[in-house]
Amino acid sequence: MASRIHRAKLFKPVIPGVAPMLFASNHHFPRHSHDQFGVGVIASGGQRSWSGVGTVRASAGDVIMVNPGEMHDGAPFEDAVREWRIIYLDPATVAREADEEFIGTAEIVRPVARDPLLACRLMELFASLTAGHTDLLDREEQLLRTVIALFRGHGMARFRSSATSPSVSRAVKHIDSAPERPVSLGELAALSGVSRFQLLRGFSREVGITPHAYIIQRRVTLAQRFLAVGQSAAEAALQAGFSDQSHMARAFVRQVGVTPGRYRAAVA
Predict the structure, then answer these.
(1) CA distances from 211 to 157, 176, 179, 218, 260 (A)
(2) Domain at 166-267, CATH from 3.30.450.40, 1.10.3880.10, 1.10.10.60, 3.40.630.30
(3) Local confidence band at 31 (pLDDT 50, 70, 90 cut-offs)
């Protein structure tokens, strides 16, 4: 069995709503989602991942993409280290950049693409965001060119989906209203008007993960917000609804790829 190798670097954002990260890892990320768009390039190695269109594979040079709230995971080929650079974009930032080019909310339509132009744009943007000598105008131009290339080539107007059943929608809404609050499967089932098994099966099918896993990933998102405003890891764990700091740390590393302490130091 291959030894675990995981190196992650979160760069301090220089444009609000734009967060670059660098990974070299054979870590297996469980199913999770982000509040942001994620767009990156595989620099070496490769990975397979679950997505809304099924399992996909990405190799060196491929662009990897994910929408806000979209469930996905990631595992290396044969436990070998893969390296990738990824940029997380807040939806409000994307809307601001694309408001003259697109009507409605933009949505990425494929999780992996072989697109040399977009890959080049992303690498140029990543370098601009992480190099200390570039000026604001250069960064803004790089960001605009990248967003336009992304959504012209791989985006579409986003319409509200009617695929989610009312019972699952009610459960998701209840969790999202207060992810830090303890909740049981029985409570969610009663609220949704179905049996516990029906809810578990429907939730897993439509959301992509179980209610418990969904709550954990929402709590990690909450913890990120608390850490970003300077709260300690212990305070963030408590307010996000984790049983203790170590529980939060394990979930945080699995989902974000860095420890809460390193995340706080980079963004607070």
Answers:
(1) 29, 11, 11, 10, 23
(2) 1.10.10.60
(3) very high
